[in-house]
Amino acid sequence: MLFEEEKYRFMHAALKEAEKAFEKDEVPIGAVIVHNGKIVGRGHNQTETLNDATAHAEMIAITSASATLGSKYLDECELFVTAEPCLMCSGAILLSRLPKIYFGTFEPKFGAAGSVHNVFGNKNNIEIYSGLLAEESKSLLNAFFKKLR
Protein backbone atom coordinates (compact mmCIF):
# COMPACT_ATOMS: atom_id res chain seq x y z
CA MET A 1 0.00 0.00 0.00
CA LEU A 2 1.59 3.26 -1.16
CA PHE A 3 -0.64 5.58 0.87
CA GLU A 4 -2.20 5.44 4.32
CA GLU A 5 -5.57 3.70 4.41
CA GLU A 6 -7.50 6.90 5.14
CA LYS A 7 -6.10 8.51 1.96
CA TYR A 8 -7.72 5.74 -0.09
CA ARG A 9 -11.01 6.31 1.74
CA PHE A 10 -10.97 9.99 0.83
CA MET A 11 -10.05 9.30 -2.78
CA HIS A 12 -12.92 6.80 -2.97
CA ALA A 13 -15.19 9.67 -1.88
CA ALA A 14 -13.75 11.78 -4.71
CA LEU A 15 -14.44 8.91 -7.13
CA LYS A 16 -18.06 8.83 -5.95
CA GLU A 17 -18.26 12.52 -6.85
CA ALA A 18 -16.76 11.74 -10.28
CA GLU A 19 -19.43 9.07 -10.78
CA LYS A 20 -22.10 11.72 -10.11
CA ALA A 21 -20.58 13.80 -12.90
CA PHE A 22 -20.55 10.78 -15.21
CA GLU A 23 -24.27 10.19 -14.57
CA LYS A 24 -24.94 13.82 -15.58
CA ASP A 25 -22.92 13.48 -18.80
CA GLU A 26 -20.19 15.68 -17.35
CA VAL A 27 -16.47 14.91 -17.59
CA PRO A 28 -16.16 12.57 -14.58
CA ILE A 29 -13.85 14.36 -12.20
CA GLY A 30 -14.60 14.53 -8.50
CA ALA A 31 -12.97 16.21 -5.52
CA VAL A 32 -13.22 16.30 -1.75
CA ILE A 33 -11.50 18.51 0.79
CA VAL A 34 -10.61 17.08 4.18
CA HIS A 35 -10.02 18.91 7.46
CA ASN A 36 -8.96 17.02 10.59
CA GLY A 37 -9.96 13.68 9.08
CA LYS A 38 -13.43 14.85 8.01
CA ILE A 39 -14.74 15.77 4.57
CA VAL A 40 -15.72 19.45 4.63
CA GLY A 41 -16.17 20.07 0.91
CA ARG A 42 -17.28 18.03 -2.09
CA GLY A 43 -17.55 18.75 -5.77
CA HIS A 44 -17.83 17.22 -9.20
CA ASN A 45 -17.64 18.75 -12.65
CA GLN A 46 -20.77 20.69 -13.53
CA THR A 47 -19.64 22.78 -16.49
CA GLU A 48 -22.43 21.53 -18.75
CA THR A 49 -25.13 21.50 -16.08
CA LEU A 50 -24.39 25.06 -14.97
CA ASN A 51 -23.23 26.28 -18.40
CA ASP A 52 -20.14 27.58 -16.61
CA ALA A 53 -16.56 26.85 -17.72
CA THR A 54 -15.35 27.46 -14.15
CA ALA A 55 -17.60 24.79 -12.56
CA HIS A 56 -14.78 22.27 -12.09
CA ALA A 57 -14.82 19.73 -9.28
CA GLU A 58 -11.97 21.43 -7.40
CA MET A 59 -13.56 24.89 -7.63
CA ILE A 60 -16.87 23.61 -6.26
CA ALA A 61 -15.14 21.65 -3.48
CA ILE A 62 -13.07 24.72 -2.49
CA THR A 63 -16.21 26.88 -2.35
CA SER A 64 -18.00 24.23 -0.29
CA ALA A 65 -15.09 23.78 2.15
CA SER A 66 -14.66 27.54 2.56
CA ALA A 67 -18.35 27.90 3.38
CA THR A 68 -18.22 24.98 5.84
CA LEU A 69 -15.13 26.30 7.64
CA GLY A 70 -16.02 29.98 7.34
CA SER A 71 -12.65 30.87 5.82
CA LYS A 72 -11.21 31.53 2.39
CA TYR A 73 -7.99 29.91 3.57
CA LEU A 74 -7.88 26.13 3.67
CA ASP A 75 -4.33 25.91 5.03
CA GLU A 76 -5.15 23.00 7.35
CA CYS A 77 -6.89 20.92 4.69
CA GLU A 78 -6.08 18.34 2.04
CA LEU A 79 -7.53 18.13 -1.48
CA PHE A 80 -8.31 14.76 -3.07
CA VAL A 81 -9.17 14.94 -6.77
CA THR A 82 -9.48 12.18 -9.35
CA ALA A 83 -7.48 14.00 -12.04
CA GLU A 84 -4.59 16.43 -12.07
CA PRO A 85 -5.79 20.02 -11.58
CA CYS A 86 -5.85 22.42 -14.55
CA LEU A 87 -4.33 25.92 -14.54
CA MET A 88 -7.51 27.57 -13.24
CA CYS A 89 -7.97 25.09 -10.41
CA SER A 90 -4.28 25.24 -9.55
CA GLY A 91 -4.59 29.00 -9.16
CA ALA A 92 -7.56 28.52 -6.83
CA ILE A 93 -5.59 25.92 -4.86
CA LEU A 94 -2.75 28.42 -4.42
CA LEU A 95 -5.09 31.25 -3.41
CA SER A 96 -6.95 29.09 -0.90
CA ARG A 97 -3.59 27.96 0.52
CA LEU A 98 -4.27 24.24 0.33
CA PRO A 99 -1.01 22.61 1.47
CA LYS A 100 -1.56 19.04 0.18
CA ILE A 101 -2.99 17.68 -3.03
CA TYR A 102 -3.63 14.03 -3.82
CA PHE A 103 -4.73 13.25 -7.36
CA GLY A 104 -5.47 10.09 -9.28
CA THR A 105 -4.48 10.35 -12.91
CA PHE A 106 -2.46 12.85 -14.90
CA GLU A 107 -4.31 15.16 -17.30
CA PRO A 108 -2.34 15.16 -20.59
CA LYS A 109 -4.10 18.17 -22.18
CA PHE A 110 -4.53 20.68 -19.36
CA GLY A 111 -2.67 19.32 -16.32
CA ALA A 112 -0.88 21.94 -14.23
CA ALA A 113 0.69 19.86 -11.46
CA GLY A 114 3.56 18.37 -13.41
CA SER A 115 2.35 16.94 -16.72
CA VAL A 116 1.80 19.87 -19.12
CA HIS A 117 2.51 22.70 -16.67
CA ASN A 118 3.93 22.84 -13.16
CA VAL A 119 2.24 25.74 -11.42
CA PHE A 120 3.26 24.61 -7.97
CA GLY A 121 7.01 24.33 -8.51
CA ASN A 122 9.28 24.34 -5.47
CA LYS A 123 8.44 27.80 -4.13
CA ASN A 124 4.90 27.20 -2.91
CA ASN A 125 5.46 24.58 -0.20
CA ILE A 126 2.61 22.47 -1.52
CA GLU A 127 2.91 18.71 -1.23
CA ILE A 128 1.62 16.92 -4.33
CA TYR A 129 0.96 13.20 -4.51
CA SER A 130 -0.10 11.54 -7.76
CA GLY A 131 -1.27 8.04 -8.57
CA LEU A 132 -3.78 7.53 -5.76
CA LEU A 133 -6.42 5.24 -7.35
CA ALA A 134 -5.05 6.28 -10.73
CA GLU A 135 -6.43 3.27 -12.62
CA GLU A 136 -9.95 3.75 -11.29
CA SER A 137 -9.85 7.46 -12.11
CA LYS A 138 -8.48 6.87 -15.60
CA SER A 139 -10.99 4.07 -16.30
CA LEU A 140 -13.91 6.34 -15.49
CA LEU A 141 -12.56 9.05 -17.79
CA ASN A 142 -11.91 6.54 -20.58
CA ALA A 143 -15.45 5.13 -20.24
CA PHE A 144 -16.88 8.64 -20.50
CA PHE A 145 -14.94 9.58 -23.62
CA LYS A 146 -15.66 6.19 -25.22
CA LYS A 147 -19.38 6.82 -24.62
CA LEU A 148 -19.10 10.17 -26.43
CA ARG A 149 -17.64 8.62 -29.57
- The percentage helix is 25-40%
What is the alpha-carbon Rg in Å? 14 Å
Count of discrete alpha- or pi-helical segments spanning 4 or more residues: 4
Beta-strand fraction estimate: 15-25%
Shape: globular
How would you classify the helix and strand content by structural class?
Answer: alpha/beta
What strand order characterises the main sheet? Answer: 2-1-3-4-5
Main sheet, how many strands, which sense, barrel?
5 strands, mixed
N to C succession of SSEs? HEEHEHEEH
**Using DSSP, what is the number of strands?**
5
Termini Cα gap: 35 Å
Output mean pLDDT.
Answer: 96
Unreliably modeled segments:
none
Task: Quickly list its features.
single chain; 149 residues; alpha/beta; 5-stranded mixed beta sheet; 38% helix
Structure overview:
With 149 residues, the chain is of the alpha/beta class. Helices cover 38% and strands 20% of the residues. The chain has four helices and five strands. It has helices at 5-23, 57-69, 87-95, 134-148; strands at 30-35, 38-44, 77-83, 100-105, 127-130. It has a five-stranded mixed β-sheet with strand order 2-1-3-4-5. Strand 3 (77-83), helix 3 (87-95) and strand 4 (100-105) form a beta-alpha-beta unit. Helix 1 (5-23) runs parallel beside helix 4 (134-148). The radius of gyration is 14 Å and the shape is globular.
What does this entry show, briefly?
This protein has helices spanning 5-23, 57-69, 87-95, 134-148, and strands at 30-35, 38-44, 77-83, 100-105, 127-130. It has 4 helices and 5 strands; from the N terminus they run αββαβαββα.
